[in-house]
């Protein structure tokens, strides 16, 4: 006796959260059944393995049918085939678009192309996440990227509108899209200590302050390509950043800046002497990062540079985070007192964001 | 020219990509009714076209309006080649033809293609203007309401229940026409869908005419079926119960399970008087004759069964004269009827007087290939023959009517088994004809028939019994005789006194049969049938006793014929009726009493059985009060007289025409283990595992003993097909396979629905078919309803309070309300004194008061009840006096607006546009009140695939198809302005596969009643906010938005 056909269809589509999780994690039906058996469900419910097998198959089939709709979540809301309560719909979508920290760290900043997709095998082996799950997560990134890439308006809003994600998840996706578009390098060994959250935080700050969308409602050049408002960095701004170079190139200015910072922080900083000794190096590092951002290659290396030029030197001198904060605040603020420096607004736009990023990046 | 049909095509969405180059579609729509076709403009390059067409107007006869479906085809325009069809929508416009139902059909319909399934949706608005209202009933039967529900619909009152109506139409099956060889599968499927749609329209119209002739205005319990007879044709047949219904002008407060109309209700202004002079001589445009080439050249009538009580007993002579009087009156009412049959399974109080037992008849027929248009009536004759037989069986039981009547067929190649079954009954004539003789008889009825046991009393004369039966005095009233076991096909009467809870009982059986042709095959089948019936009955009896119960309700026995086997599946709900005697146990007798170890084995088995019975009694809370034997005077069992239950294969003759299933004189059932077969039977008895704790199941509408339903329901369909290994198939192996299949299916259901615990699977409906040699297909449809274990007391409280309000506002209803009270909330403690009840309900303890139920007179009860209510009022003061009255006014003003209000008041998701449509096989929705019936839903779909593997194999294919069918039903209901389908049934699910060719095909037929319901809790909200929420009628019928 073999079961040829075995289905269960409810007027309200039954969703088992545990099975959904297993399906999303890319387990095959037999693996999922084995995992469910191990969870002790048979003892709890008095069911047999055959029942579990049939139940798992059924849910997998349902998820498989739903997957097509999950690719365009608004369709899930308007479709008529599966009657699913709204709270369940939200859960289906949210979980489908959720991703693993380990996975996102591997592909963050990489081009979402076929080439990367081929590397998923390696990522799967490395992270222990099933290849199926890797594919789903990768395809999600790519799908969201494709849809919002060329869209006007707020990146987070666009993602929320087209994929009906929660605010939290939409922000994460905005970061992923932003990183993929600007191809920031995140995979270097010295960046390994950073979490996705660290990068997402930086991305959000950069989207808010450094992109075209950040400039305001009226783009300065209506003819220029302002379509990619939130996704692309403001080219003009990057160009202008060169002006900051005088802060380190002009020796007087640099000395003045240093003395202003030192005067203000004397007695307040535990690592004052180290700071005083390193001031010029640190300042040069930060300003040079800004000045180099006109080149795409250097934009990609932004985080590498920040870690190399600022985080690592401070860390090697054992700066506590509170001192880093005090220093960065004073470092940014003191520029306002430099009479010879005219690019105050530009400096604030650059340093405001960078300060936030650096504070987030500064940990072990 | 009595009607104008107007159709507007608004928009489409989610269309498939038809042009690979642009990834877009140039869609347009063809709207067809009868022979007229209109087209919309082509909407270029869009997957979400906005046609916003003009109103397409069809001027048509109302006959056509009834018969024809509106056919909407969505196509992709192609400049150079033929336009590609995207899919179709068939809309049955019948609901627009009666004034009380829907006024407009408007909404998003899934676009369906028989090869690709659902491909996007289309928004359509349909209206009908009937030109001349005076003429409306002349030519056609527009205006006759149809209900699938097998009880009087909730917001109506039965003035007269006229009786049985039946009709069938025959045609050639397009799948078997010569043209099918050259046309595409899609064209063939569509021809079939259209033909069946047409035939069901015609059938419904014809039945409507019969109803009008009987001066009725509605058909209740309408059941339409298809017989796919292959090359010999396609039969669409329907049966139903003609009634004259009144819409209730002031619907009573919510009554979850019964809500039965009663004479106290006021006359409604909305009455549709049965139009006089409706001598309809219609000319059908459909040729019933041409297609009917069905001839009968072979027929075997099969022995019939009468299931009732059994055993021996002392005679009595009570209630003679009254019975005679009753019989006389009813007979005169029924005699004029050819078939005094009723498809209803639940009745207005007082309608059912006595129940005799189950009557059934089967007949094996050979479908003939010879085209014989001269004999179109063959089918009618076949059924008439069977009905005649049923009628005579009922007579033998001293009954003049059959209730809970149904008919079915099973076809394999050219052999067809026709089956009919019902419950023989004695009815109260008051409902059967105009109220001329109400007066005195009614008086007597109420005096003589104590609630809760009357229907159990035997209708036949105990001195002249049709079969040996074991009679005792009723354990309830102790005046009349009752059998020891009662089998019926109806739902448990609402006033029946039941002890404990009920449970689903199934008998399952397979019999191998040699492959044979024509007559030989039919003979072989008809020879097997009596044995199957006998064994099915024995199994049912054993299982019933094992559960410690004494009555079966909702019994449905299905015999399915296949190439090389016959399958029997009987489902019923077992209960313990307080009026019937306690069932005896099951005794096992060994054949070789001298063998010591064998003896030991037997006693071991006996112990196991006894343990099971004890366990079941505990599980189902069956604890009948001990009644001293002397009072009851029940015969003391004499062990010597026990006769053996004979295994019948060897000794039964082939010529039996009446099978007596009573097993002679005994009180306990004796199972003799004389061969391995019997051993297995005993084993299989014990292998039926009870549902896991927190689960109950039944195949009737409601579960006896549970009344505190919550509003969470989940309707589902589950299908399983197993392949038998063809090697050395034996009856035992088959039985085991089949048994396992059903048990595993149930286990799976319990597991899947575990999140709903505590819950009850209601209306569990199993269907077996044998699509191929080694395949067994089982289809189950049921609804899971959660109930609240702790809220029993509260439900009772609120209900009583409401009753009180009603009683105080309307004194006329005082008489009626105790009846409702007892049936709704306290079926097992009908009239206990106040304090005692509070205690017993809160502790959920036994049923001490049950036996006293009948002797309480109403007036004193009302007194006691009100004092009890005073007590409760101190605790619960939430429900305002008179709130129900206000509700009623709102509802009358605009029931649709209310529906919309409901949806708006519970916004589940801000940006969803799909309204929730509930589906249930029951006639009611727990915790809600049905305010309007919008019309019957009767849909037939075919789905075919030539890429089975790509669609996920057979399971993927059928899963998707059933989900699509649900979606299309829901869409049609929503477009009618409804939010639920009640009495939903999947009548057919024919699945065929050819994995080698990567092909599969499936036909599904579903039906139900589209309704508008309002949640009980919201009713009160509506009533308190009445001035602000009274929605203008303009929003009625619109898309259900949430």
From TrEMBL, chain A:
GO terms under biological process: platelet aggregation
Superkingdom: Eukaryota
GO cellular component terms, A-Z: nucleus
An example molecular function term from Gene Ontology annotations: fibroblast growth factor binding
Residue stretches spanning the membrane: none
Entry protein name: Acidic fibroblast growth factor intracellular-binding protein isoform X2
Organism: Odobenus rosmarus divergens
Species classification: Eukaryota, Metazoa, Chordata, Craniata, Vertebrata
Name of the encoding gene: FIBP
Automatic annotation (TrEMBL), chain B:
GO molecular function: calcium ion binding; calcium-dependent phospholipid binding
Entries under SMART domains matching the protein: C2
Role noted for this protein: Required for insulin-stimulated glucose transport and glucose transporter SLC2A4/GLUT4 translocation from intracellular glucose storage vesicle (GSV) to the plasma membrane (PM) in adipocytes. Binds phospholipid membranes in a calcium-dependent manner and is necessary for the optimal membrane fusion between SLC2A4/GLUT4 GSV and the PM.
Listed name of the protein: C2 domain-containing protein 5
UniProt domain C2: residue ranges: 1-109
Entry-linked Pfam families: C2, YbjQ_2, YbjQ_3, YbjQ_4
Keyword terms, alphabetized: Calcium, Cell membrane, Cell projection, Cytoplasm, Cytoplasmic vesicle, Lipid-binding, Membrane, Metal-binding, Protein transport, Transport
Protein transport in keyword set: yes
Source lineage: Eukaryota, Metazoa, Chordata, Craniata, Vertebrata
């Amino acid at each position: 006796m073999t079961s040829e056909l075995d289905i269960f269809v409810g007027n309200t589509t039954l969703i088992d959260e545990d099975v959904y999780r297993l399906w999303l994690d890319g387990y095959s039906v037999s693996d999922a059944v084995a995992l469910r058996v191990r969870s002790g469900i048979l003892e709890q419910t008095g069911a047999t393995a055959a029942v579990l097998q049939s139940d798992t198959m059924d849910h997998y089939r349902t998820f498989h049918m739903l997957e097509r709709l999950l690719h365009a979540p608004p369709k899930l809301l308007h479709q008529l085939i599966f009657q699913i309560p709204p709270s369940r719909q939200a859960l289906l979508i949210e979980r489908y678009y959720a991703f693993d920290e380990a996975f996102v760290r591997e592909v963050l900043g990489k081009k979402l192309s076929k080439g990367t997709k081929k590397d998923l095998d390696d990522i799967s082996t490395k992270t222990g996440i099933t290849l199926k799950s890797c594919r789903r997560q990768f395809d999600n990134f790519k799908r969201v990227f494709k849809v919002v890439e060329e869209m006007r308006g707020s990146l987070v809003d666009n993602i929320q509108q087209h994929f009906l994600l929660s605010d939290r998840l939409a922000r994460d996706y905005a970061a992923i899209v932003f990183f993929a578009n600007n191809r920031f390098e995140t995979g270097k060994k010295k960046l390994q200590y950073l979490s996705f959250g660290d990068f997402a935080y930086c991305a959000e700050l950069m989207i808010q302050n450094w992109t075209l969308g950040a400039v305001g409602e009226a783009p300065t050049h209506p003819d220029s390509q302002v379509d990619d408002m939130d996704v692309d960095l403001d080219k003009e701004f990057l160009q202008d950043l060169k002006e900051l170079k005088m802060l380190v190139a002009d020796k007087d200015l640099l000395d003045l800046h240093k003395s202003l910072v030192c005067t203000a922080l004397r007695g307040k900083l535990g690592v004052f002497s180290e700071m005083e000794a390193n001031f010029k190096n640190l300042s040069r590092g930060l300003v040079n990062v800004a000045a180099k951002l006109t080149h795409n290659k250097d934009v990609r290396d932004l985080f590498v540079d920040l870690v190399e030029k600022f985080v690592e030197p401070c860390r090697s001198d054992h700066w506590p985070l509170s001192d880093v904060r005090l220093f960065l605040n004073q470092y940014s603020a003191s520029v306002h007192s430099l009479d010879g420096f005219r690019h105050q607004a530009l400096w604030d736009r650059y340093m405001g964001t960078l300060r936030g990023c650096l504070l987030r990046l500064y940990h072990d | 020219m009595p009607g104008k049909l107007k159709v507007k095509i608004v928009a489409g969405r989610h269309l498939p990509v038809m042009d690979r180059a642009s990834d877009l579609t140039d869609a347009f729509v063809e709207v067809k009714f009868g022979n007229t076709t209109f087209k919309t403009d082509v909407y270029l390059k869009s997957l979400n076209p906005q046609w916003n067409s003009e109103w397409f107007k069809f001027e048509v006869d109302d006959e056509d309006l009834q018969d024809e479906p509106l056919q909407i085809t969505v196509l992709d325009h192609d400049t150079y080649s033929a336009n590609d069809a995207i899919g179709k929508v068939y809309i049955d416009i019948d609901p627009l033809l009666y004034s009380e139902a829907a006024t407009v059909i408007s909404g998003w319909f899934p676009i369906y293609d028989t090869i690709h399934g659902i491909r996007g949706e289309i928004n359509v608005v349909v209206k009908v203007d009937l030109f001349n209202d005076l003429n409306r009933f002349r030519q056609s039967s527009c205006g006759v309401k149809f209900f699938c529900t097998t009880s009087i619909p909730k917001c109506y009152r039965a003035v007269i229940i006229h009786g049985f109506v039946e009709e069938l139409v025959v045609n050639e099956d397009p799948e078997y026409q010569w043209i099918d060889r050259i046309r595409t599968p899609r064209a063939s499927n569509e021809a079939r869908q259209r033909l069946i749609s047409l035939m069901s329209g015609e059938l419904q119209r014809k039945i409507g005419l019969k109803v009008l002739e009987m001066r009725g205005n509605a058909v209740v319990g309408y059941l339409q079926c298809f017989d796919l007879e292959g090359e010999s044709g396609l039969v669409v047949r329907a049966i139903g119960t003609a009634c004259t219904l009144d819409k209730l002008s002031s619907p009573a407060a919510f009554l979850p399970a019964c809500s039965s109309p009663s004479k106290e209700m006021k006359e409604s202004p909305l009455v549709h008087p049965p139009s006089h002079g409706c001598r309809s001589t219609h000319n059908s445009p459909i040729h019933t004759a041409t297609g009917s080439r069905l001839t009968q050249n072979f027929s075997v009538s099969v022995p019939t069964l009468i299931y009732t009580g059994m055993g021996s007993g002392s005679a009595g002579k009570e209630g003679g004269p009254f019975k005679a009087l009753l019989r006389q009156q009813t007979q005169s009412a029924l005699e004029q009827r050819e078939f005094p049959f009723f498809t209803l399974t639940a009745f207005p109080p007082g309608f059912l007087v006595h129940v005799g037992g189950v009557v059934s008849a089967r007949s094996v027929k050979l479908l003939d290939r010879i085209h014989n248009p001269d004999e179109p009536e063959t089918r009618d004759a076949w059924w008439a023959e069977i009905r005649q037989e049923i009628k005579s069986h009922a007579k033998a039981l001293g009954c003049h009517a059959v209730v809970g009547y149904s008919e079915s067929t099973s076809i394999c190649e050219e052999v067809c088994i026709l089956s009919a079954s019902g419950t023989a009954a004695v009815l109260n004539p008051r409902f059967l004809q105009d109220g001329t003789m109400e007066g005195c008889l009614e008086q007597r009825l109420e005096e003589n028939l104590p609630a809760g046991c009357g229907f159990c009393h035997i209708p036949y004369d105990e001195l002249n019994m049709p079969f040996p039966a074991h009679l005792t005095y009723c354990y309830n009233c102790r005046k009349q005789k009752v059998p020891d076991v009662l089998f019926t096909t109806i739902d448990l009467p609402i006033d029946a006194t039941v002890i404990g809870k009920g449970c689903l009982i199934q008998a399952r059986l397979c019999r191998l049969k040699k492959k044979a042709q024509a007559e030989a095959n039919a003979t072989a089948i008809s020879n097997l049938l009596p044995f199957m019936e006998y064994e099915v009955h024995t199994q049912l009896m054993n299982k019933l006793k094992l559960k410690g119960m004494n009555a079966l309700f909702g019994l449905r026995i299905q015999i399915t014929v296949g190439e090389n086997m016959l399958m029997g599946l009987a489902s019923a709900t077992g209960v313990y009726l307080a009026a019937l005697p306690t069932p005896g146990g099951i005794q096992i007798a060994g054949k070789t009493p001298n063998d010591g170890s064998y003896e030991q084995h037997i006693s071991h088995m006996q112990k196991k059985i006894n343990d099971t019975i004890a366990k079941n009694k505990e599980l189902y809370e069956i604890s009948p009060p001990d009644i001293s034997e002397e009072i009851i005077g029940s015969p003391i069992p004499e062990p010597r007289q026990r006769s053996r239950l004979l295994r019948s294969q060897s000794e039964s003759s082939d010529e039996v025409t009446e099978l007596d299933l009573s097993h002679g004189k005994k009180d306990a059932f004796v199972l003799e283990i004389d061969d391995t077969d019997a051993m297995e039977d005993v084993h299989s008895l014990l292998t039926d595992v009870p549902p896991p704790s927190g689960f109950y199941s039944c195949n009737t509408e409601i579960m006896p003993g549970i009344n505190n339903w919550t509003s969470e329901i989940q309707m589902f369909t589950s299908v399983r097909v197993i392949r038998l290994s063809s090697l050395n198939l034996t009856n035992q192996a088959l039985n085991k396979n089949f048994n396992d299949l059903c048990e595993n299916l149930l286990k799976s259901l319990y597991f899947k629905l575990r999140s709903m615990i505590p819950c009850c699977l209601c209306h569990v409906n199993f269907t077996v078919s044998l699509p191929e040699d080694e395949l067994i297909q089982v289809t189950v449809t049921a609804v899971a309803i959660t109930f609240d274990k702790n809220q029993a007391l509260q439900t009772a409280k609120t209900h009583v309070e409401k009753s009180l309000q009603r009683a105080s506002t309307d004194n006329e209803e005082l008489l009626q309300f105790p009846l409702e009270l007892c049936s709704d909330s306290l079926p097992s403690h009908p009239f206990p004194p106040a304090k005692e009840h509070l205690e017993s309900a809160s502790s959920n303890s036994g049923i001490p008061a049950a036996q006293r139920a009948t002797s309480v007179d109403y007036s004193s009860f009302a007194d006691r009840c009100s004092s009890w209510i005073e007590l409760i009022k101190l605790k619960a003061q939430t429900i305002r006096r008179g709130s129900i009255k206000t509700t009623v006014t709102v509802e009358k003003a605009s029931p649709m607006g209310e529906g919309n209000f409901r949806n708006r008041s519970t916004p589940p998701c801000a940006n969803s546009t799909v309204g929730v449509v509930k589906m249930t096989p029951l006639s009611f929705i727990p915790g809600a009140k049905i305010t309007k019936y919008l019309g019957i839903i009767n849909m037939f779909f075919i789905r075919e695939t030539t890429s089975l593997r790509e669609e996920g194999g057979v399971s993927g294919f059928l899963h998707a198809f059933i989900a699509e069918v649900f979606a299309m039903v829901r869409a049609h209901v929503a477009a009618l302005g409804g939010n639920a389908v009640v009495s939903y049934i999947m009548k057919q699910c024919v699945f065929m596969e050819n994995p080698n060719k990567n092909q599969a095909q499936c036909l599904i037929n579903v039906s139900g009643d589209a309704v508008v319901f309002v949640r009980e809790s919201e009713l009160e909200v509506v009533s308190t906010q009445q001035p602000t929420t009274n929605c203008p009628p303009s929003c009625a019928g619109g898309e259900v938005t949430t």
